[in-house]
């Protein structure tokens, strides 16, 4: 980890202590015993990181299946593919829940183990959102973009909150538990009833007069879930900022300085949205490729925050992963300010491939180091 952890912060790894608060009732009363029994299937010779990796590989397998059967996120897959999605998401969530238990069983728990765990989670979150978009047949649309960006924002704010408060907080409804259950059951239901269930008008499920429905914008069941995610995200982000402010006051640190740590992330998300708006052909024809590039960049950015957290290093604001995001955005909006694009037309797709290769290689180097 030498390129990523300055020498003066290495001793802090030995001082780090993982702290978490999990308020999930399902975790406590439903899944706890299942996880306690599940971890016993892994031999004591298996590293906890291998459990994490195996779980993540199931999601990658599901994404490969999706690219074969529904590359544009609108195709109808054979029922067994949706069942496979459901199983892969469930297995990933289960393995993610017990890798820490495996680390404690084998006496190999470490800060870098937490880094590997969260690093895999940050990459997987965008992939699961793509799977869900495909399951609901959202297509290469702004709905899919919103779905992925909402999930990334939630994950980043949770990581940033953990950095400043030194506690990982999981509420009554969290992505690692209730989120995994929801997506696993949704894909399972799609395999049984077909993806057309998600195209049902949400108003048909409500006791609303026809005159009222006519005044409302069209909204499918799938779209209403994304709207709900966006609405819930607002108080979630507010709570994270509130907890950060409280922790900063207790530690006698600047609240505004801590808040400023979020600027590069939100600037990156906004830049990606601007890029997609300025290049509609990328959004409507190559969105999955674009989101994979963004997923690798996001995972690296989150990974650097976690490294800083476990080593007590300063919060990492800008890094090399912001370069392709900001460069691509500048290229996309160049004509609007009277400049020529460096990568125009088909060449912009080449730029996406370059960005994907760059971020994937950089993320892989970070993970292996």
Describe the structure.
The chain has 369 residues and is mainly α. Helix content is 69%, strand content 2%. Strands 1-2 form a two-stranded parallel ribbon. The longest helix is centred in the middle third of the chain and has 30 residues, at 221-250. It starts with 19 loop residues before the first strand and ends with a helix. The model has no long low-confidence stretch (mean pLDDT 90).
What's the quick description here?
Helix content is 69%, strand content 2%.
Topology diagram in text:
Layout: E1 20-22, H1 25-38, H2 48-69, H3 79-106, H4 111-135, H5 142-165, E2 168-170, H6 175-193, H7 210-215, H8 221-250, H9 255-260, H10 263-278, H11 280-285, H12 287-311, H13 322-333, H14 346-368
Parallel strand pairs: 1-2
Helix pairs in contact: 2-3, 2-4, 3-4, 3-6, 4-5, 4-12, 5-8, 5-10, 5-12, 10-13, 12-14
């Amino acid at each position: 980890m030498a390129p990523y952890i300055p020498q003066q912060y290495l001793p802090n790894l030995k001082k780090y202590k993982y702290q978490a608060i999990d308020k999930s009732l399902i975790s406590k009363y439903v899944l706890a015993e299942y996880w306690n029994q599940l971890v016993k299937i892994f031999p004591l010779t298996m590293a906890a990181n291998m459990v994490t990796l195996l779980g993540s590989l199931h999601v990658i397998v599901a994404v490969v299946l999706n690219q074969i059967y529904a590359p544009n996120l609108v195709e109808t897959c054979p029922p067994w593919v949706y069942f496979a999605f459901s199983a892969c998401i469930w297995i990933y969530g289960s393995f993610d829940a017990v890798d820490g238990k495996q680390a404690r069983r084998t006496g190999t728990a470490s800060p870098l183990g937490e880094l590997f765990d969260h690093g895999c989670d940050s990459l997987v979150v965008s992939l699961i959102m793509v799977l869900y978009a495909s399951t609901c047949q959202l297509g290469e649309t702004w709905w899919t973009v919103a779905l992925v960006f909402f999930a990334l924002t939630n994950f980043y704010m949770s990581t940033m909150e953990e950095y400043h408060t030194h506690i990982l907080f999981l509420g009554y409804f969290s992505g690692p538990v209730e989120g995994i259950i929801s997506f696993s059951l949704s894909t399972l239901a799609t395999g049984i009833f077909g993806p057309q269930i998600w195209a049902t008008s949400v108003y048909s499920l409500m006791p609303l007069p026809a005159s009222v429905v006519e005044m409302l914008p069209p909204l499918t069941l799938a779209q209403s879930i994304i709207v709900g995610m966006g609405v819930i995200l607002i108080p979630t982000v507010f709570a994270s900022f509130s907890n950060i402010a409280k922790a900063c006051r207790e530690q006698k640190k600047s609240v505004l300085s801590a808040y400023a740590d979020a600027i590069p992330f939100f600037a990156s998300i906004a830049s990606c949205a601007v890029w997609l708006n300025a290049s509609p052909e990328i959004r409507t024809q190559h969105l999955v490729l674009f989101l994979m590039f963004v997923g690798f960049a996001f995972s690296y950015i989150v990974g650097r925050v976690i490294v800083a957290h476990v080593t007590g290093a300063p919060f990492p604001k800008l890094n090399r992963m912001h370069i392709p995001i900001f460069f691509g955005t500048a290229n996309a909006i160049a004509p609007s300010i009277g400049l020529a694009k460096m990568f125009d037309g088909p060449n912009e797709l080449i730029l996406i491939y370059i960005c994907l290769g760059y971020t994937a290689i950089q993320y892989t180097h970070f993970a292996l180091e």
